[in-house]
Design brief:
It contains twelve helices and seven strands. It has two domains: 3-158, Butyryl-CoA Dehydrogenase, subunit A, domain 3 (Up-down Bundle), CATH 1.20.140.160; 165-285, Nuclear Transport Factor 2, Chain: A, CATH 3.10.450.50. 54% of the residues lie in helices and 14% in strands.
Length: 296
């Protein structure tokens, strides 16, 4: 095995971790693969010259590439996505859905709202235990500033509950029961979890033509929910303005949010928010703070 083959083998041994880092930063399996491939091209051109700790070097390079991509993405007008890359074999919607589920769709949605530097600092430190000294170098910040980036991001990710912990857990149970019934198209289960006088309001953009933007009564709301059950598979619980709600985010891209009102053990009302201006005004956070895994 020559030097180039050895370098390629060492890179491949680290590809999975690099791709995981890039995916959490970028929220797209395709973009993550592009970032990792660019890191390989840079390593290959350098031939490994001057690289001491290969793992640290690759983490730094991939993070800087992701930071540049996030900054470029921020320069696009709101709601405009960069051109879609060609989907490579093994990199289709199914694989991305699996990745999104492992990361947590709610976390991906919240990460999208961080500044590029906040996102990089949070992902590297809180999810991959990268030391702040390296994060400071990657983000071109001082050590205290790098720590502040991660702290600010952590606060945004975790959010602030408007409810006591026990009540929040109870509301979460009700919302999860509603979601399970919606996913299954189970009319009976929906009627059990909806209050008799429940109200559902929705922005017109999320509804089929001719569907009323407001429904009243458990039967009408349950039937309307069943009609839209296909979208429920992309929904996950999240903290919405301090209360338990749902975010609907196929492949990690936010489409709309359900603001849910719970009274007792039933859903008293829910509102489907899809208007971009209204979505921007919502405070979204994960219900469970992500753990910090050890670095392999």
């Amino acid at each position: 095995m020559d030097g180039h083959e050895e370098l390629a083998a060492e890179f491949e041994a680290r590809r999975g971790r690099l791709r995981a880092i890039a995916y959490r930063m970028l929220g797209s399996a395709g973009d993550a693969e592009d970032a990792v491939q660019e890191a390989w091209l840079r390593l290959s051109r350098a031939g490994g010259a001057g690289v001491g700790n290969l793992g640290a070097w690759l983490t730094t390079v991939v993070s800087r590439i992701c930071l540049d991509m996030l900054r470029a993405r921020r320069e696009l007008p709101y709601g405009e996505e960069p051109p879609e890359r060609a989907v490579a074999a093994g990199d289709g919607p199914e694989e991305e859905a699996v990745l999104a589920d492992s990361v947590g769709l709610a976390l991906l949605v919240v990460l999208e709202r961080l500044s590029p530097a906040e996102r990089v600092a949070f992902v590297l430190h809180d999810l991959f235990a990268v030391p702040f000294e390296r994060i400071a170098a990657i983000t071109d910040r001082s050590l205290p500033a790098a720590k502040k980036l991660a702290s600010r991001a952590r606060h945004k990710v975790r959010g602030t509950s408007a409810l006591p912990a026990a009540e929040l857990d109870r509301h979460r149970g009700v919302v999860e029961a509603f979601l399970a019934a919606a996913r299954g198209g189970d009319l009976g289960a929906l009627l059990d979890v909806l209050a008799p006088d429940v109200v559902r309001r929705a922005d017109p953009a999320v509804l089929p033509p001719g569907m009323a933007t407001e429904l009243r009564g458990a039967r009408a709301v349950a039937e309307g929910t069943v009609l839209l059950r296909r979208r429920a598979r992309f929904a996950v619980p999240a903290l919405v303005d301090g209360r338990v709600g749902l975010v609907v985010a196929p492949r990690g891209r936010l489409l709309y949010v359900l603001r849910v009102s719970v009274e007792g053990d039933r859903v008293a009302a829910y509102e489907v928010v899809a208007d971009p201006a209204r979505l921007r005004g919502l405070e979204l956070a994960v219900l469970d703070a992500p753990a910090s895994p050890s670095v392999p």
